[in-house]
From TrEMBL:
The chain holds residues 323 to 614 of 614 of the full protein. Residues 24-280 form the EAL domain. This is Thioester reductase. Keywords: Coiled coil. The keyword Ribonucleoprotein does not apply. It comes from the Bacteria. It comes from Teredinibacter turnerae (strain ATCC 39867 / T7901).
Amino acid sequence: IAKSRGPNSAVYYHPSMCKEVELRLEIEKELKTAIRSADEFTLFYQPQYAATGECIGAEALLRWNTAQRNLSCPSMFIPVAEDTGLMLELGRWVLFRACSQLRELQESCVPNTFKRISVNVSAAQFNQGNFLNDLINAIDQTGINPNMLCIELTESSLIKNVSDTVRKMGELRKLGIQISVDDFGTGYSSLAYLSQFPISALKIDQTFVRNLHENKGNNAIVETIMSLGDSLNLSIIAEGVECREELDALQSLGCEYYQGFLFKPPLPYDQLLPLALQGQPTISYSTDPSAT
Ligand code: C2E
Ligand code: MG
Ligand code: MG
Ligand code: MG
């Protein structure tokens, strides 16, 4: 048949394309079941540090423990959840879970050097009509003080509908919630918009942190983000700090807050708790213990 259609009519099928589609369908099916009971999901927490060495907060990162396959890494399943609309329900679970664990921290009298638990919110979740309601429900039902809750949004969530975003962000700020822009520099948010958003922090994407001490381009980008933060009065967090040289370079550019494997990897809640309760410098370099 292929011959009779001539050489230009062939339909090229790459076996890996088929495999990928199949894998996504399987993940979608497994996700649907998993979301119903939610007991395969957990939140890990990656501590954030100040230049002075205190643990000043932590970012909640979703993990999925499934018997079927190794999907603990969110980049495997979050895109599937986002494309299929499942992220709305999963995101609601994340919000609620993070708030309950924040409540536990607040009941354990976490010191005031510890300022936030950050929660990642997908563009679709943020832009959906019920987001504020879901958030208020989570706050009410868990009884947290929302001053310690931070929402991380990526640039792409912000530009979809600027006036709507400004209004929603205003509501969040009225509730006392902090807002940071995640993966900053990788999207295409216009600087003009950025100044309209009532945000509290920018997170420098780890691609710019990588080899900052040797890479002139990255150094220039980080320097620019630092001065932007200065003029817009935003705090700056560098993410994905992996080595001492990157930390030194960030410090000399004036960056105050850090997150990355050099400090701590994402940890189960039980391991976050003692770090959060410490209230004094506890920097420990997980990749190079001799550095302290
Ligand atoms: P993100 O929010 O930018 O999170 C930072 C990611 O960088 C995390 O990956 C973290 O484990 C990783 N990381 C931290 N320090 C280092 C480092 O020093 N070196 C390197 N190479 N990586 C580091 P993770 O946990 O795999 O999450 C990936 C992405 O998945 C997140 O990026 C976020 O966009 C998304 N995500 C995770 N949890 C959630 C969630 O609950 N809801 C939503 N909507 N998205 C989530
Ligand atoms: Mg994040
Ligand atoms: Mg990020
Ligand atoms: Mg990211």
